[in-house]
Amino acid sequence: MTDGPNETIEDASMSAHQQQMSAENFDLKSFFPYLVRVYYQSVSGSVGDVYSSLYDLGVSEWRVMAVLAPPQSMSALDIIERSSMNKVNVSRAVARLRKRGFLKQDIDGDDRRRSVLRLTEEGRKVFYDLIPRVKEVERQLLAGLSEEEVRTLISLMARVRENASSLEL
């Protein structure tokens, strides 16, 4: 029978050995977080080619426009919450969109201390011109998948996102 300290050393030794074996068997090409990044770049790049080539918009500008598109106004903080972008990216996108005349900033009618953003008429025209084009890219990206498979894919992605949100590291 081994005493406590020896068991701890053996356990640590086994753990180090297991870690080494795990590292030796690691394959980046099958590592889920890596695959997500590859899929993201491919999918986002396909859609981004549309709004970039036609209107010289970046992904952050596109997202701000998409959040504001149903004729509504909201603060930059609201855009951050609804777009999954950080404050710096939203701020830069808002500045570029304002400079190009696609976005305007007004004082909130209900709270004069707060400013709200909305698409200009020109911004709405650009956005509505892009919608059928990006929807066509989406259709092509999902080609060959049934409606049920698309629902399953979206559901699985949501579950993974929930798992990521609840990680305790």
TrEMBL record:
Gene Ontology biological-process annotations: response to stress
Matches recorded under Gene3D superfamilies: Winged helix-like DNA-binding domain superfamily/Winged helix DNA-binding domain (1.10.10.10)
Keywords, alphabetical: DNA-binding
Signal keyword on record: no
The keyword DNA-binding belongs to this UniProt entry's keyword annotation: yes
Domain HTH marR-type stretches: 28-162
GO MF term list: DNA binding; DNA-binding transcription factor activity
One Pfam family per UniProt: MarR_2
Alphabetical list of InterPro entries matching this protein: HTH_MarR-typ, MarR/SlyA-like, WH-like_DNA-bd_sf, WH_DNA-bd_sf
Source organism superkingdom: Bacteria
Transmembrane segments: none
The protein, known as: DNA-binding transcriptional regulator, MarR family
Source organism of the structure: Cohaesibacter gelatinilyticus
